Amino acid sequence: MQSILDHFSELEEPRVAGRTLYPMEELLLLTICAVLSGAETWIEIVLFGKHKLEWLRTLLPFENGIPSHDTLGDFFAALNAQKFETCFMKWMQTLCPSLVGKILAVDGKTVRRSHNKSAGQRAIHLVSAFASEGEILLGQLKTEEKSNEITAIPELLEAIDIKGATVTIDAMGCQTGIAEKIINGGGHYILAVKNNQPTLYEAIESFFDASMESEFKNVPYTFHEQVEKDHGRIETRRCWSVDRLDWLESEIKDRWKNFSSVSMIESIREIKGEISSERRYYIGSVPAEAQRVAYSIRKHWGVESVPQAHRKEVQYELTDCVKAA
After folding, report:
1. Which of 33, 135, 241, 242 could cross-link to 263 by cystine, CB 3.0-4.6 Å?
2. Among 60, 295, 81, which residue's Cα sits nearest to residue 168?
3. Residues with Cβ within 8 Å of residue 57, at least 6 apart in sequence
């Protein structure tokens, strides 16, 4: 409880001094605990508070009991949402104090059923930073358009201590500015490459096609393979990683800070006798260690399987559920 209050101490009280029945600390504690317990509306938060009032009073006085849902809505509507968001992310990082040697998966997703055509409300896009090994969602930003992920990712990384972490991002985040941001923050990167970087993508694809055909003759590489069987499905994932990049034009390579390796993941799936395959390409500032690269990419895919309910951050609920109530 003290950790929560310490990290939210920078918030400014938005209400007139001396005219409040419920201290800001009580409103924050009540709402955070309720939302973390599954409450999604102000009414549900009030119901949680009334049910848990005895427990809440072991932490703070709550002399006037639990406020109404209107009081909560008015308070958070007046609160500086951006400042709250920053405080919340700092608090979450205390639950995962060091990312050194860990995987930080950054991923953007559209929240299901968040659009309302009749009301002119577009779907909500969330960019998340997920500490994969600890399965902790460290931060999240909302964007109005999916294309805005490019500007949201650096902002999200700015709020997190990424020193020593390996940051994995899908193709949307494969941008030279984002790579530089990660390196300047003391981290490393593994970025998926697709056609949004056409010249780089075509060069990497051609290199691996030629290397596979020649069985990597005169090309130093590392290799890792993993096979998984589950309910009639067999999936084989193979990773090749290379750190000799003299085949790549310097004007392409030099645009990416600390660019030192390229990797290819080949996934072969067999389901009920039907076989499909897919190849993905990645650039990194990490050594060409295929097993480590494959592990990092596999951990990144883990963030995509996190249930939507778990992907929602408290700051999203608090700043937006007033409109939905």
Report:
1. 241
2. 295
3. none
Strand partners, 277: 268
Q: On the CB side of 34, how many CA atoms lie within 13 Å of its CA?
A: 27
Angle at the Cα of 66 (from 63 to 69), degrees rounded to 5? 150
Give the whole-angstrom CA distance, residue 284 versus residue 187: 11
Calpha distance 190→170 (Å, rounded) = 9
Among 175, 180, 182, which Cα is nearest to 151's? Answer: 175
* CB-based contact 128:89 (threshold 8 Å): no
Maximum C-alpha span of the chain: 78
Q: Distance between CA atoms of 16 and 128, rounded to whole angstroms?
A: 35
Q: Using CB atoms within 10 A of its CB, is residue 255 exposed (0-12), middle (13-18) or buried (19+)? A: middle
State the Cα–Cα distance between residues 53 and 45, nearest whole angstrom: 12
Q: pLDDT for 16-72, tens place per residue?
A: 888 889 999 999 999 989 988 889 899 999 999 999 999 999 999 999 999 999 999
Residue 174 phi, psi (nearest 5): -80, 80
DSSP state of 286: S
The pLDDT value given to residue 317:
45
Q: Of 143, 156, 110, 163, nearest to 311 (Cα)? A: 110
Please state, in angstroms and rounded to a whole number, the distance separating the CA atoms of residues 221 and 226: 17
Residue 239 has, within 13 A of its CA and on its CB side, a CA count of: 22
What does pTM read for this prediction? 0.74
Cβ 3 vs Cβ 91: under 8 Å: yes
**Residue 276: φ, ψ to 5°:** -135, 155
Q: Where are the beta strands (DSSP E) in 243-324?
A: 261-271, 274-284
